[in-house]
Amino acid sequence: MMAAVAITAMATVPATPATAQDAANFDVTATVAAKCNYTGGTIAFGTVTTDSSTGLLNPGQSASSGDQAAFYCNGSNTTVELSHVAMSTAASASGFVNSIDFTPAVNVGGSEVLSGDQAAGSAFGARSGTLVVRAKDLTAAGKVIAGDYAGSITLTLTPAS
Amino acid sequence: LLSAFLPLAGTQPAHADVLTVTATGTIGTACSIAVASPFSSPDLSASGSVGATATVNCNTGFKVNATSANGAIKTATTAPTSFTNTLPYNFTFSVPLESGSPNPISATCASTALVAGQSSCALSPANGTGLSSSGRASIGKTATLTLAYTVPTLPTRLIAGSYTDTITLTVATVP
After folding, report:
1. Measured between CB atoms, does B73 come within 8 Å of chain A?
2. Which residue in chain B has the smallest CA separation from A32?
3. Is a pLDDT exceeding 60 seen at residue B8?
4. Is the pLDDT of residue B10 over 70?
5. Complex-level ipTM
6. Which residue has the higher pLDDT, B8 or A45?
7. Which of A33, A41, A135, B121 has the lowest CB atom count within 10 Å?
8. Identity of the residue in A7, A29, A74 whose CB atom sits nearest the CB atom of B164
């Protein structure tokens, strides 16, 4: 006598296979540091002119530094301090003054962006373009004594993003 | 009486019992992707590239799509004249397959083509074909991701800040 037993295990196959799907996130992060690119320079007036009859400075005399074409500050919260020391000479004589003042100014990209001293922390922002520092509108309190005059402009930029 | 129930060995023919068990089943399609190594932080002071890897595990044919959250590496800081806050890039995805040619399969897409709704590139999120494996599987393979960027040409510069983007890679079996 032979006994045969057939056991069939069946699995259901769907008519339309299901779509398996998955996803993964890849984050990209980078930082661009805030910085400013500029250097010091020289502003040379040469010989300033005076009124031959009064000895007073002729108005409207200004001079500029050389161009700094690579200037930029890329931080949107960059601050500035601009200060100056009037030009003076060691020579002195009664009836003459030995100090010549001026207004410091800063041009960027051909436009004047600062004029006059600026307190530390003044807003400057992100700027790019040719930098020119100017000493403009020479003034003196009287007749100026002859001599070699020297002063300074200090431009301090603090980059911040 | 008891002995009447005992088999008499050797005196009766042996029974030949055959038990046939037929088991059939279906291994379901599966497709997964996971971050193996993330992108390093790109140095945006010069043009370059960064890489990452992913583990792909699809036991049947599949397709790949990618979505960029920003369409570029971007910072929220507003960019004034002569600056930009957006750095587009080219994204390349390459994954080895079990067999066939070409192998691996790869595609390169501009980041702008990876924004939701775009379909112009193989990896674009709305590209129905996606980057297709043409019916071939990839079991536990390591895929490579490359993000190549070119910094702006002067006089335009990147505004300072934190730049981010998120690339979402999606794998799906193709019935």
Report:
1. yes
2. B160
3. no
4. no
5. 0.86
6. A45
7. A33
8. A29
Mean pLDDT of A138-157: 97
For chain B, give the mean pLDDT: 92
Q: Tokens 């700094």 — which residue?
A: A68
Separation CA A22–CA B54 (nearest Å): 12
Helix (H) or strand (E) holding B6: none
d(CA A106, CA A74): 17
A chain contacts of residue B88, beta-carbon cutoff 8 Å: none
Go through A91-113 and write b for each residue having 16 or more CB atoms within 10 A of its CB, e for each that does not.
eeeeeebbbbbbbbbbbbeeeee
Q: Quote the CA–CA distance of A68 and B82 in Å, as a whole number.
A: 16
In this predicted structure, the answer to whether residue B111 has a pLDDT above a threshold of 60 is: yes
In this complex, do A26 and B166 lie within 8 Å of one another by their Cβ atoms? yes
Rounded Cα distance between B37 and B31, Å, is 19
pTM of the model: 0.82
CA distances from A5 to A9, B14, B18 (A): 13, 17, 7
Looking at residue A17, what is its pLDDT?
A: 57
Q: Look up residue B57 and give its amino acid.
A: N
Q: What is the mean pLDDT of residues A25-44?
A: 96
- DSSP string spanning B139-166? EEEEEEEEEEE-PPPTT-EEPSEEEEEE
pLDDT in the model for residue A16 = 52
Min CA distance, B38 vs chain A (Å)? 6
Residues of A in contact with B149 (CB under 8 A): none
A1 CB neighbours in chain B (<8 A) are: 15
> Which residue would you say has higher pLDDT here, B38 or B25?
B38
